[in-house]
Amino acid sequence: MKVTRLESLHADAGQRNFDFLKISTDEGLVGWSEYNESFGGPGVSAVIDGLAPLVVGRDPRAWEALVTLLSAVRRQAAGGVVQQAIGAIENALLDLTAKALGVPVYALFGGPVRDRIRLYWSHCGTYRLAWATEMQIPPLRTLDDVVKAGREVVERGFTALKTNVFVLAPPGGGEPYLHSPGFARRGPGFPELNAERYVLAALREQLAALRQGAGPDVDLLVDLNFNFKTEGFLRVARAIEPYDLFWVEIDTRDPKALHYIRSRTSIPVASCECLFGRRDYRPFFEAQAVDVAIIDTPWNGVAESLKIAAMADTYEVNVAPHNFYGHLATLMNAHFCAVAPNLRIMEIDPDTVPWYDDLVTVTPEVRDGHLLVPARPGWGADVNEEAVRAHPPRKR
């Protein structure tokens, strides 16, 4: 079997695009993966095109050798969009290899160790606040809306939710907004990234409303992204300690700073979703900086992600996948979660565009807040190319 072509496809996903890689072979088998250019990765498709000549004409089942080759050729530009392109290629090769053998991808790694995966509802209220129009979902504007969002989580069977930072009543008036200065989005706070009192007060009100709606038994998670610096992250963590959080998620490039925060708050700390490869993760493990290491399998590749998870296990650290993508990425992450013994929980985005399910041939099966691990060959689904063409990508 030889690879004949690498092709990128893109579909509108509301406030962003979904990006897919298709690898074709001379025997008619096709491998798929999902990647993402909308957040932090512009140019991944171009890098895939640049790497394609090293893959075409080769046996896709030798995926470890091919990934080793691609990494060596681009060693001087490791990480970033280069690693995201290599990860996309690796994942499509894994799909192809498993299909050629007639087995699920997890069988390539000795799994599964579990057949159902606990999920948390990610971006609870976030998309409704920031992108309701683009995604055609109910808007969120008030604390009553936050209460209703928490209640909906329970009604749909989930046992955990994660939210971001909302400012629903800005000082001096104005429209509610998602507090995201770390990404230079609308609202104050950029570039200083300070944890102002009104932001802390708004987050406490938001968590109280979510708890009111979701009740006492649902786990609450908070994602702070890159929105503060070390002093601010610690101020926020201490301000929200009374809400009995499952974890606080913090993005920082400094493992020592993260260890400092972790050592001074009672909330478990999750981080690392923006890192690439074992070498990036090792300093965070050595610094004892995290309780849960978040791994982006579309960026890293599922095989490399499992190596990161194995390394985390030697430091008594649990892992969780970064999964705010589409259905194909959810299935890719399901295979990662099925194999990694030190899994904590899995992310999923229930707030979606109306045509979300149409983009794949088989949708993930969610039951009682858990994802059932698929047993079909490969990832367990292919991309529906006709549906993708029916929803052309937004201009970036």
Q: What does it look like?
A:
The protein is an alpha/beta fold and 396 residues long. The protein folds into 2 domains: 3-103, Enolase-like, N-terminal domain (Enolase-like, domain 1, 2-Layer Sandwich), CATH 3.30.390.10; 109-382, TIM Barrel (Alpha-Beta Barrel). 37% of the residues lie in helices and 17% in strands. It has 14 helices and 15 strands. It has helices spanning 44-51, 63-73, 80-101, 126-130, 132-135, 143-155, 197-214, 230-240, 255-262, 277-286, 297-300, 302-314, 327-339, 385-390, and strands at 3-12, 17-25, 30-35, 116-121, 160-163, 166-167, 177-178, 219-223, 247-249, 269-271, 292-295, 318-321, 346-348, 365-367, 370-372. The strands form 4 sheets. Strands 5-8-9-10-11-12 form a 6-stranded parallel beta sheet. Strand 10, helix 10 and strand 11 form a beta-alpha-beta unit. Helix 2 (63-73) runs antiparallel to helix 3 (80-101), helix 6 packs parallel to helix 7 (197-214) and helix 12 (302-314) runs parallel beside helix 13 (327-339). The longest helix is centred in the N-terminal third of the chain and has 22 residues, at 80-101.
Please give the structural blueprint.
Elements: E1 3-12, E2 17-25, E3 30-35, H1 44-51, H2 63-73, H3 80-101, E4 116-121, H4 126-130, H5 132-135, H6 143-155, E5 160-163, E6 166-167, E7 177-178, H7 197-214, E8 219-223, H8 230-240, E9 247-249, H9 255-262, E10 269-271, H10 277-286, E11 292-295, H11 297-300, H12 302-314, E12 318-321, H13 327-339, E13 346-348, E14 365-367, E15 370-372, H14 385-390
Parallel strand pairs: 4-13, 5-8, 8-9, 9-10, 10-11, 11-12
Antiparallel strand pairs: 1-2, 2-3, 4-15, 6-7, 14-15
Helix pairs in contact: 1-3, 2-3, 6-7, 7-8, 8-9, 10-12, 12-13
